[in-house]
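tool_call: predict_structure(chain=1)
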Amino acid sequence: MKETDITLLQFIRQNAQMGTVTLSKLKDMLSDGIVKTIIGNQLDEYNEVFEGAGKMLDEAGEEAKNVNGFMQTMAETMIDMQAIADKSSSHIAEMVLLGSTRGVIKILRHLREQKDASIAVSGLAYKLLYIEQTNIEQMKRFL
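tool_result:
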C-alpha cells in the first residue's frame, strides 16, 4: 500500500473517530426526538467508516492510530461548555452543522494533499465527505 493511502486512511479513521466521540456526547444531551434519531443514524455511518478504514489499514499491515486522548477530552469539554446554556435541539443541530462544515474542509484538504491515493482509499474519503455534507443538510432544518 502506498504511503499516500496510509496517510489518508489514518486521517479518515481519526476523523470518523472524532465524529463518533462528539456525536455520542451530543446525542446523550438530547431527549427523545427526531434530532436524536438523526444523530444516531449519523453515528452509525461514522462507525462504518471508522471500521472500514481500520480494516484497510489492518489488511495493509499498518497499525491504526487513534485520536490522542487529550484531543478527545478537549472536544468533549468544548461540547459541554457550549451546551451549558443551551441544550435545545436547535443549538445541538448548529453544533453538528459547524463540526461537519469543519470536517468537509479537512477532508477536501486531505484529498488534495493525497491526490495519488488509490481509488479504494479515495472512495472511502469521499464517502466520509458525503456523510459530512449530508449531516449539514439534515441539520439545517432544525436551526
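agent: The chain has a mean pLDDT of 93. Proceeding to next step.
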